[in-house]
Amino acid sequence: MKNLNIKKLSKKKIILFILLANICFFLVLEFGTRSLLNFLNLPTKQKYANIDSSNYNFLTGYYNEPFENEAYNQEKAIQQLATDRYGFSLDGLESQDRDLTKKEKCEYRVFVLGGSTVQGRYLENNLDTIPSKLKAILNKKFRNYKVSFNVVNAGESSIISSQELALYLYKIKFALKPDHIIFFNGVNDFINPIYNVDKTISNSHKFQREFEKMIKKSSSNILYHFDAILSENLSLYFLIKKTLIKSKRKVFSISKDQDSKTSDYKLKEKIYLHTERYFYNIDVVAKLSSQTTKNSVFFQPSLLPENLNKMSKDEKKIYENAKSYKWASSPFMKAKQGYYDIIRDEIQNKKEIYNKYKNFQLVDLSRIFLNKEQKNTYYGDHVHYLPISRAIIAENISMNIISIMLFKIVEPERKNIKHHIYS
Asked: Which ranges of 80-234 would DSSP assign to H, the alpha helix?
């Protein structure tokens, strides 16, 4: 009897030992996987469409989380600006608790909407964004007048014109007392592809559509729910799953790539889908402009093949790297240049139509860097700007918006306003 108990006890110890050994082995693998992914600067857990599920937003599909603190990378450069209660990025010394439902009597409130180029990348400090620079310029130019400019950074990574429109119409215009809305955009409407998307849902962002799929699957399939929990919490599980999915995509894409070379005609057709979407949303923005809320749209500059002769050494490296990208099975940079050419032509074609709206303007800023000095580097990658280029952009925006801004600003001596503004 005693021997039997000893045997039972030994079996329990062996089972416990095996269990603990497996747990330890798993923890070592999990820690090692997470450390490796961090070292390679890769995501350590599943994000839906590369966006954390906590960033879901009913208006735009996703948006900045409110009350986020400023974050820094290993080089102690700003990786992410702090946000206020609305999820708007905070430039300078603005408070996270600011209440934009209230407004000072002499305040002229401007919201700048756009993607990560507005939000800010490659920042020297939290005053280095386009909205922050614009605020400083406007307050300086109008220093002789009883007006204070508050420029709100409403940028969010990757968003397109339809998301900006929704944010403007259903949140900012409805509740936050804007005097002026600036849309600084264009490139994300190209980068976010819709040439293989059903027309009825094509005026949306890929991330919005993927969030919808995720929500529907998780609510109808319990296995998908468990898969989501494991993917969002275990790096090892996430890595194995990601590897299998990418391998499957690669296998199925080989046969497609063999006969998917896009002719120039087909490429142009696909580009037109994106330019059509862009101008549909801009047309709505024009119609929404009014004496109380003025709307300005700025078609943004971007690194293009046409800039090649003026690119610095660093920009040429960026360009060469971007040349390897594909867009609709065509060279990315070729397609991007084609998109920009069509948008520019259409801006000219629509000039008379847009001139009818006294409180609206569409300005093409896409060529402002064409004559830059070659030694200067204006881009940190093929989309995002550096401090020197952001300063030029902010100055150009300020010069253009003054023409439709003056009618709303009450000044004592209207005749002398230009002298004061530009002195």
From this structure: 116-119, 130-141, 161-167, 173-175, 187-191, 206-220, 222-233
Which residue type is seen at 63? Y
| Residues 6+ positions from 141 with CB-CB distance below 8 Å | 398, 402, 421, 422
Residues in the chain: 423
> Which structure tokens are listed for 404?
């439709």
Which pLDDT does position 252 carry in this prediction? 52
Give the three-state DSSP class for 178: coil
Stated pTM of the model: 0.83
| Closest by Cα among 176, 184, 204, 199 to 98 | 176
Q: Are 100 and 152 in contact (CB under 8 A)?
A: yes
**296: helix, coil or strand?**
strand
CA distance 228 to 39: 24
* 3 state SS of 261: coil
- Residue range 8-58, pLDDT digits in tens: 557 777 888 788 888 888 888 878 888 887 777 677 776 654 556 567 788
Structure confidence by residue, pLDDT tens digits, 133-168: 999 999 999 998 889 999 999 999 999 999 999 999
Q: Rounded CA gap, 213 and 203, in Å?
A: 16
